Amino acid sequence: MLPKVMDLLPAGEVMTGGLDYQPTAREFNADMHQPFELGIVIRGEVDRRFGDFEVTLGPGDIWLVSAWEPHAYRWRGTGNFRLLVCFLPQFLGDESFDDVSWLSLFAAAPAARPWVRTDEVRRRAVSIAHEVGWEFQNTPAGWRTAVRQGVLGLLLLLFRSWELPREHASLRACRASNLSRMAPALDLVQSRPARRTSLEEAAAVCSMSVTHFRFLFRQTMGTTFGIFDLRARLSHAARLLAHTNLPLKAISEQTGFVDHSHLHRAFVKAYGCTPGRYREQHEREVPAV
Question: What is the pLDDT of residue 101?
Fold first, then answer.
């Protein structure tokens, strides 16, 4: 079984993943992590929840998770099998489909994202998933390039059947080149997950005015920079809950929250459970503190 997504990317890596089996989950497992996530059900069924939006996926269905996006999932039955690919933005870079950035597929609200609609697309998706899984398992020469092509192939399948609601039509205006312009701000947040990054700091590191940066970030990432930064710090707090025995007060101090009550409220809103419950759900090796 693959490790938890939040632990997947070692230093220096921009992509990881593979095929793995998933046991039945009796309750939703909440998660939030920095890498973008593309997953596909090969066998079995999974319930996935994004805030108030919930969907059940079967073989050939694909899901997308944006950077530091709160989500939860539970697998049904036994013998569940999936392909999971987690990657940083630079893995796909400035790739686009008909001048529409791949980021747009992730930036849309979950209900407005492209979902597999036909059995033919499901069959093609499963075929690509097996090919990508083979590359992960055997790692022949050029396997990372093959995985990248497979991910783009799956995203292209989704893009071709994407019918955006009118209120989300502006997402098609997002250009792949926006990503490189946002990269300094993304790197800044990633480099210091325990510290709050202000909108002014992010705009400055991207050499933009605050107004322009605010607009471009929302269009590119599908959320405000403030929420993006908050989720990054919450993800860091979740890691501390899962892997240390630090009390909530100490964790709040280490992740830039006003106090433990502030962290508690934000955590429940993002993860759908209390920090204490999250800690109980995760097996951990607790070092001396």
Answer: 84
